[in-house]
Each structure stands twice: as structure tokens, then as C-alpha cells.
Amino acid sequence: MFRTIAIRIVLGLLTLFAVSVLIFVSTEILPGDVASAVLGQGATPETLAVFRAELGLDRPAYTRYFEWFFKAIQGDFGVAMTNKRVIIETLEPRFLNTMFLAGYAALIAVPLSVGLGIVAAINEGKAVDKVANVLSLMTISVPEFFIAYILILFLAVQYDIFPSLSTVFADMSFTERLYVAALPAATLTMLVMAHMLRMTRTSVLSIMSQPYIEMAFLKGLSRSHVILRHALPNAAAPIISVVALNLAYLIVGVVVIEVVFVYPGVGQYMVDGVSKRDLPVVQACGLIFAGAFVGLNTIADVLAILVNPRLRNPR
Amino acid sequence: MRIFGYKPSLSAWIGILIIAIFLIIAIFADWIAPFPEEETVSATWDSPSADYLLGTDNIGRDMLSRLIFGARMTIGVALVTTILSFILGTVTGFLAAVGGQVIDQALSRLVDVMLSIPLLIFALIILSMFGSSIPTLIITIAVLDSTRVFRLSRAVAMNLVVMEYVEVARLRGEGLWWVMRREILPNALPPMISEFGLRFCFNFLFVAGLSFLGLGIQPPFADWGGMVRDNAKAISFGLPAPLWPAFAIAIMTVGVNLVVDWILSINSRPSGASAEM
Fold this sequence. Notes:
Largest interface: A-B, 54 and 45 residues
Largest sheet of chain B: none
Number of strands of chain A: 0
CATH topology of chain B: MetI-like fold
Strand content of chain A: under 5%
Distance between the termini of chain B: 35 Å
Distance between the termini of chain A: 10 Å
Number of strands of chain B: 0
CATH architecture of chain B: Orthogonal Bundle
CATH superfamily of one domain in chain A: MetI-like
Shape of chain B: elongated
Oligomer: heterodimer
Helix content of chain B: 55-70%
Number of helices of chain B: 10
Largest sheet of chain A: none
Strand content of chain B: under 5%
CATH superfamily of chain B: MetI-like
CATH class of chain B: Mainly Alpha
């Protein structure tokens, strides 16, 4: 078992390395470089050369990559091009904010959607199931900012329960933060819930046709007992992987939601960086998002190995 | 009424109707729209009236006209992107299946790495280099999205490559391109069609999302994502201005999804594969 898990983790690290190469290369290999992007088309070859030397762009790409990579894993992402601030100092509080928001949403979304999925499976074909089905289909097909603005319009403007802008300060207390981040967290919850709910329902129901489930019914057990005790443990692996996948999606969904609610997180920082074409900032944020994404996927695979007895004890 | 020999369900009809209406609006925008796309006709955020059916936007342009022109831009960009992504993804996917181990391994590993970066993040990185003009936007999203198409087309083609008729074609001495086009493509088409609908939905939401972030289609062109962004401040005054374009986006995706669901139920695919994020 430990071997399988170790292999998976090594694979995850390799992926992360490949991803960092890809992030670097996709900003390098494309025609034009940072210097021409910043200075624009009117720049003379001489000014371009001077600017390139200033940024260290005149050295070969692979030396710059390794320098960037080794500094990056030590937390040194360099200096932002536009305001000359050290990136990690801006990034760190924003990273914590984003983690707070994503964790907040995940803590609501995961139990709620898995629970509702099980309820829907128990009441298959009944009204509860149908309502859950239609609602989850609806949240899947609308853009994230639509949900966000609907929530703002009703909960923030019409009834004034929550603030419409989620500005977070460093000296805010924990409960204040929970209150301020309530709307973005609710939006994110609705975004990721649908997929998890449907997957929980399907994976529980797909096990219901197994012979041992029929046996349990024939013993005279109630439907909810059969589902909770007999079907659910075997449905755990697909549920866990879809939960992790959706948490990974949560990390990305955060970008748009942070912009809607003006929440000071990494997503907003990245969007700012992109519109100002601040490449070091974009690379740093990109690496963080990709790292979180790869990390969550690796964790999902490891958990799937742990909950599956067949993988846990290989022959 | 039947379409391709199948009878659409009620929900499929609703979907077809929605798509048809939106397409007609997009194509004939010049004739339908009551006001030009970029003309300021009234004050900021006028409430709906007989002249301006949905009111006006943040700089006094007619909301309805902007929506109509936005349909052309948003649907058009998403459609072109999806077509491009399918051409790219299908060709590379079939090539990986037909072309042998080396090509397959090289393409598949590249796609694996690309899939381990979230699409939005990857797109943001590339757009930060290029800036967002409409051609860059289309090419960027199409290339990134084609990795998803690649996975499906490769999987489908893998099952077809082992068929006798492909073997026969190869023994006849047909080239790679001929085998891909004449033997694989016709048989791979049914699952690809429903995938096209799903990918379109995804790209449509993606373009709208990028424009909403201000990194997609640039003003003065009207597009639904950008319109939500432009009018976002109205919401704090309790005005529904940004909800109109957002609602249009939602309706369009629901419409396409309804049709896709129907197509899926015709040739039910083995796994309930859905649009990946």
C-alpha cells in the first residue's frame, strides 16, 4: 500500500515540476517577450536590449527557468514589475484569504452535498430527488457571476442581511470574517454542490443493483439502513474523488468570485496582474493555483487508495 | 416532427427553440436592434420604458440593443472557438490513435500536463503575454479546450483502430490521413456531436467569464460577459442592469444543455461524461 501511495505522491511532484516548466515555457516560447510587451510596439531595438538586460532576459531560457523555479519553491517570486513590490509580501496575506474563503465554502458544500446526495438516493424518484435534480442542473448551467449577483441583489441590497462587498482587513476578528465572506462562500458552495450531489447520488444508486444489496433487502432491512451501512462504504471512492475534483474547481472558481465581491485574494491579484501584464505576478499566482490543483488531485488519489480495500491490500 | 429520424422530447424542443431564437437574433442583429451598438441614447441606467425596453446601461446605451449585438459577439466567438478546438482536438486525437506508440505517448503526456493546470489559470497566463484581442482569445481557448476534445477523440478512435476495416484500409496501402478521414471519422461522429454541445456550453461560459474579468472581448464591442462587468455597480443601487446579460447567458446554456441531454439519450454514451472544468 505504501508503495502505491509513494508512487502516486512522486507522480504528483513530477506533475508539479512539469507544470512549472509549462507555465514558464508558455510565457517564454511565444513570440515576443516581457520587454516588448511592456514597452509596446514603439520601442527601439536599443531600448529593448537595455530593458532586457535589466530584467536579465538576455540570458538563456533554461538558466532563468531554474533560477525562477528554485527561488519560487523557497517562496521568493521576485518583484512585481508594475509597482516594484516584493511579490511574496503581497501574496502571503492574499493566499491566506483565498484559503479561508475556499475552506469556508468547502466546509459548507461537502457535507451538504454529500448529505443531500444520500437523501436523494434514499428517496429515488420522489419529490425530494426531483427537486434536488432540477436545482443542481440549474446551478450547473448558469455562469458563476449570475448566482453571485442574484444573491447580492436579494440578500445584500433588498434585505441588507450581508454586505455586498467582502473587504477583509488584517485586524478583523474571525467571526467578522465569516460574516463578511458569507455571500462569496455561499456562491462558491452553490457552484460546486451540484456536481458532488449528483455524483454521490449516482454512485450510491449504481451499487444498489449489486446482489449483496438485494440480500440486505431480503433480510428485511430498511432502505435507509441498506444505503447507509451497505451501499455507502462501497460508493466512498468515487465520491471522494469527485469531492476532491470539485475542491480543485473551487480553487479556480474563486478567481471570478473574488472579482465579483472585491475580496482580496490571490485570484483578484492574478486578474490584476494579467490586465497590467505583470508577468512575475502572473507566474507566481499561476504556480500557486496549479500547485493547489495538482495537490488536491494527488490527495484525492491517495484517499481513493486508502478507502478501497482492494487497492489497500494488493495481492 | 422528426429530426434526423428521431423525435425530440418536449425539453429538447424548448432547447431547440431557445437556440434558434438566439441564432436568429445574432445573425440579424443589425435589423432587429432598435438602436446602434455603441450609441449613447439616454441617461445612465434609465429604468425600462417604451423607448428602451430593458432600460439603458452604464453610459446610457440601450440595453436591449446591446444584448442583441452581444448575442452575435458572444455566441459567435464561442462557436468559432469550439469549431477550431474540435478540428484541432479530433485531428490530434485520431493521430494519436492511428499514428503509433511514439506519437501517442508524446501527445498524451503533453495533454496530461496541460490538463493538470486549471484552464482559466492557463488562459490567464497566456493572455497576460498576448493581451486580449479577439483572434488571440479564440486561439488560446481553442488550443486549451482541444486537450479535452483530444481525450475523447483518442479514446473513441482507439476502439475503432482495432477494427478489421481499418486493418484492411491499411493493407490496401491507404495513408494516415485517409484512414483518419474515411474510416475513423464517420464512426466516431455520434459521440463527438454531443460532446460538441457540451464543449460549446463550456467555451461559451468561459468566454463570458473572461470578458467579465475584463480580459476577454474588449469594448466597444457588446458582449454579455463584458456587459455584466460594465453594469456591475448598478446592483448596489438595486437595479437589475447586470442581471439581463447574465440571464441571457444562463438561458443560452440551459437551451444547449437541453438539446445535448436529448442527443445523449439517443446514443447513450457508456459513461455519463460531462464537461470537464
